[in-house]
Specification:
Blueprint (H helix, E strand, L loop, with lengths): L1 H4 L3 E5 L10 H14 L3 E5 L1 H10 L4 E4 L15 H10 L3 E5 L11 H11 L4 E5 L3 H10 L3 E3 L17 H10 L4 E4 L5 H9 L4 E4 L1 H4 L1 H13 L2
Helix pairs in contact: 2-3
Length: about 220
């Protein structure tokens, strides 16, 4: 599974309920387009989207469930319920928020992931981290992959310039597990730079699969002319 994504591009096919492309059918077609374009994997959110994507592509899927809980800032696969659902739907790799923030119910990452690993010892888990220390700790906890996904998205990393090439390079040099570059990669040139930091593979989402965001960037470019 891991060898299939090495050195390649993973395309994130996600659309939240408030976005115009929110549809498991549309995300499945996005995934087909990504596969035809040469992607080596898909990152997808929700049971419905993963089921639809698995029917039409044969690429490894990094699955997650975004679920908001009132007592926590963690929303990427925050509880065991979401992990259970992702295992049941057949996600090849399960992405979990691995920041140092407290999870729903006042549970720490350490306590949560110990239970996850005990329940699913043979499953591959990806740690979505926001900083160097979290990446190091994720490997210590037993995550199979570490991603730079949440750099800039926690209160203590807000304002970090993206893509965070420095974080990619530091984690790739220190960790034995594969490091996945993710976050703010908007151009082929930035993708090449990310790969050259030594990461195992890269995830690109908005620049490929979110036309509303892409349009907004173009509009911004001419708004002050």
């Amino acid at each position: 599974m891991l060898s299939a994504i090495k050195g390649g591009l993973i395309v994130s096919c996600q659309a939240l309920p408030e976005e115009p492309l929110h549809s498991d059918y549309i995300m499945s077609r996005m995934a087909v387009a990504a596969q035809m374009g040469g992607a080596v994997g898909i990152r997808a959110n929700s049971v419905k989207d993963i089921l639809a994507i698995k029917k039409v592509v044969n690429l490894p899927i990094i699955g997650l469930i975004k679920q908001v809980y009132s007592d926590s800032e963690v929303y990427i696969t925050p509880t065991m319920k979401e992990v259970d659902d992702l295992v049941h739907v057949g996600a090849d790799i399960i992405a979990i928020d691995a920041t140092n923030r407290i999870r729903p119910g006042g549970i720490t990452l350490d306590s949560f992931f110990r239970e996850v690993r005990k329940k699913f010892p043979d499953k591959l888990f990806m740690a979505d981290c926001s900083c160097y220390e979290e990446g190091i700790h994720a490997e210590e906890l037993g995550f199979d992959l570490v991603g730079t996904t949440l750099s800039g998205y926690t209160s203590y990393t807000k304002g970090t310039p993206l893509p965070n090439f420095d974080l990619m390079k530091r984690l790739s040099a220190e960790l034995k597990v594969p490091v996945i570059a993710e976050g703010g990669i908007w151009s082929p040139e930035e993708l090449k730079t990310a790969i050259k930091t030594g990461v195992y593979a890269c995830v690109v989402g908005s620049a490929i699969t979110r036309p509303m965001e892409i349009t907004h960037r173009f509009v911004q470019a001419i708004s002050n002319l």
